[in-house]
Amino acid sequence: MFKAMARIFRTPDLQRKIWFTLGIIAVYRLGVFIPSPGVDYGAVQMCLAQGSASGGLYSFVNMFSGGALLQVSIFALGIMPYITASIIVQLLRVVIPRFEQLQQEGPQGQAKLTQYTRYLTLGLALLQATTMASLARTGALLNCSLPLVRDDSILTVLLIVLVLTTGTVVVMWMGEQITERGVGNGMSLMIFTSIAAGFPAGIGQVWQTQGPRTFIIVLAIGLLTMLAIVFVEESQRRVPVQYAKRQIGSRTVGGSSTYIPIKVNMASVIPVIFASSILMLPGILIQFNTPQDGSVPPGWVTWLSQYFGSGDHPVYMALYFLFIIGFTYFYVSITFNPKEVSDNMKRYGGFIPGVRAGRPTERYLEYVISRITFPGALYLGVIAMIPLIAFVLIDVSQNFPFGGTSILIMVGVGLQTIKQLNAQMEQRHYEGLLR
């Protein structure tokens, strides 16, 4: 393993890519701590010291921004607008036939969809930046009574909106540069970096507040969760495919055997993001409709606070789990098209042994997908519920650094990056990073 790592840094091309990737990540992390112009950094730190913005609505978004949201920095929006835009463009393939045609046109169509994603990212970033600047004027952004803007003029607010929107565009550009000139998927590595940045503080807080015994329990469960995620993420159902021999001129082609790899978790972390985003809506309603003067809130706000104010209520947990399962089936159904796979196999003379080509193959693939999606959905639900159930019992749910979603993303990105490094090593040395 160490010899393989040494070979990476002895390969000039790989060494250049790695240093380029690390340099971009360092610039990204530096921008997390640079406050936006016009923001009162002292007031931000006072609000954070009060703990008014911990957990709930802010924890999920702040995780993806690497702490930049709670710092109201130039990269406060982070990569979330791009993630949201990517998901929306992917879902629009089901609604807009033109998007589905672009998806099937190969690299040129993909480039067009990427351009649409960029435009939508810019629009979402502008909308979110405007909302954030408006909330910062009153202090409602961090659930604090202090205004976070030094000057309440319209020019200052417009400057903050411009800086936050530009910060999102810069983050998107840096991610694309890593993908083109570095190692791994740039956007995924940015998310990985944002989540990993909070681990040392989270682990240290568990040690300080809960003691060494709870600290060891947290580490043990975190490592076991990591092993389980690696096992499931690498698991797949291999559907055998046989290609018949064909005569093309004087050559005989085909006759090979391969398989269709169907992963247990085909939806990745997308269903968890969907479910978390929907369950954020009650928190947003609670925040905007709770009186700032300390008076009694309306009855429906009290009801929402009781059931959705925190993640440890049984109703919240049950809905969260059911949403994840439902969104898993929904996302898999729009990303894996059995009819398209069946038609492609038939076009090139492929067939599944024991299954007729055409409609029978399509029905067989639908059956396999429905069977394999169920354990994948349960797996996602259980992983996402770990911070809500297991660690409530030891009272570290708010401080736990190994949340189900964060570990799922980190392990997935880590495996993807290692596989890419392994492929590049095999191209140059005939021996990969992993043996």
Automatic annotation (TrEMBL):
InterPro entries: SecY, SecY/SEC61-alpha, SecY_CS, SecY_dom_sf
Keyword Membrane: yes
A biological-process GO annotation: intracellular protein transmembrane transport
Matches recorded under SUPFAM superfamilies: Preprotein translocase SecY subunit (SSF103491)
Membrane topology field: Multi-pass membrane protein
GO CC terms of this entry: plasma membrane
Transmembrane segments: 18-36, 68-95, 116-134, 154-175, 187-207, 213-232, 269-288, 315-337, 372-394, 400-418
Keywords tagged on the record: Cell membrane, Membrane, Protein transport, Translocation, Transmembrane, Transmembrane helix, Transport
Database matches in Pfam families: SecY
Transport is among the record's keywords: yes
Compartments where located: Cell membrane; Membrane
Chain coiled-coil ranges: none
Subunit structure: Component of the Sec protein translocase complex. Heterotrimer consisting of SecY, SecE and SecG subunits. The heterotrimers can form oligomers, although 1 heterotrimer is thought to be able to translocate proteins. Interacts with the ribosome. Interacts with SecDF, and other proteins may be involved. Interacts with SecA.
Family statement: Belongs to the SecY/SEC61-alpha family.
Role played: The central subunit of the protein translocation channel SecYEG. Consists of two halves formed by TMs 1-5 and 6-10. These two domains form a lateral gate at the front which open onto the bilayer between TMs 2 and 7, and are clamped together by SecE at the back. The channel is closed by both a pore ring composed of hydrophobic SecY resides and a short helix (helix 2A) on the extracellular side of the membrane which forms a plug. The plug probably moves laterally to allow the channel to open. The ring and the pore may move independently.
Name of this chain's protein: Protein translocase subunit SecY
Organism this protein belongs to: Micrococcus cohnii
